[in-house]
Amino acid sequence: MTDSCAFVFSEELLNYKFSTHHPFNQFRLKLTIDLLNKIDALDPMQIIPPRMATDEELMLIHDPAFIEAVKKAGNGKLSKEVAENYGLGTEDTPIFSNMHEASSLLVGGTLTAVDQVMTGKALHAVNLGGGLHHGFRGKASGFCVYNDSSVAIKYLLEKYQARVLYVDTDAHHGDGVQWSFYDEPNVCTLSIHETGRYLFPGTGNINERGQGAGYGYSFNIPVDAFTEDESWLHAYTHAIREVADFFKPDVILTQNGADSHYYDPLTHLSATMKIYREIPKLAHEIAHQYCGGRWIAVGGGGYDIWRVVPRAWAMIWLEMTENRICYGSLPADWLEYWQKKSPVELPKEWDDPENLYPPIPRKPEITEKNLNTLEKALYPIRSQKKSETG
């Protein structure tokens, strides 16, 4: 096993584009890569181009009729009525030209990352173009056509017979992945997200614990709206460590949506860059403690593509490569170039200022609520451990 890291990318990943004004904008990939290049943190030899997922690989998760519908939609040959049955042509997931090809490349990018890690070519691998966790077996949903994480996990199960821990830190619940493996005991899903009370998709409650042979392998930490760094990190730190110790995975797959930040326009959380430092650090720790280092990371949500996503996603790669350069000022040439194109003022530092937002009036109440949520979510693990030691 080598200790190298693989960064899956090609310009073609930017072809997954619904429209000019759609909030899901893969241009954030270019901003992130340019930031890494400006600090000399990404060697061209580490960049691996994604491949296209085959129809057979897509069918590990997706219904053949849905795949055919996506193909027809991308070629302008699917009626509006039929498209809507498949979640296509909606406000969230509009139809765009060559939709199947662009979506298959995102899936293939994550499969490329999987193979890099599981064949020992790389210890860690990242596909920031992936992380489309809302896609279902026969339906597109929430900006997601095909579900690359679900396909990758099924691929890991079948090709590598691996026990997979899937950790989702997107502000939106990782519903598509959870339901794909709800009865599978060799997949453990952990999602920490904003409560679905006010936010799409409305799922991810504590009592969603799996079913059949998979009961007890689904964990959800729905945090309250306006949750801040300390409370969020307390929940994440305890959850990932205790769940990993309970499940003892062979490989960890992390979905790294960057939409829990205060600046994000689609969510209601109050996190800062502090959590995006710690998310990959803990994932890295867990990978080495339980998985022989095997760690695959994908992107996900993140709709402030200028101020948040480049910094947050750069930190994943910098953690993977054990590069501690992301402190102090952002590179002046990156700021100078992109500020001319950005509609908002870019941050000058890797970290956010302490006074990023006004004080949250309900902070004690929110913190207490999140503590109770964490306790209930982890109760089965904690009670089992107590009975074993006690």
Automatic annotation (TrEMBL):
Classification via SUPFAM superfamilies: Arginase/deacetylase (SSF52768)
Protein keywords: Acetoin catabolism
Gene3D superfamilies xref list: Histone deacetylase domain
GO biological process terms held by the UniProt record: acetoin catabolic process; epigenetic regulation of gene expression
GO terms of molecular function: histone deacetylase activity
Domain of life: Bacteria
Pfam family, one: Hist_deacetyl
Pathway listed: Ketone degradation; acetoin degradation
Keyword Ligase on entry: no
Annotated ranges, domain Histone deacetylase: 22-318
Family according to the record: Belongs to the histone deacetylase family.
Name of the protein in question: Acetoin utilization protein AcuC
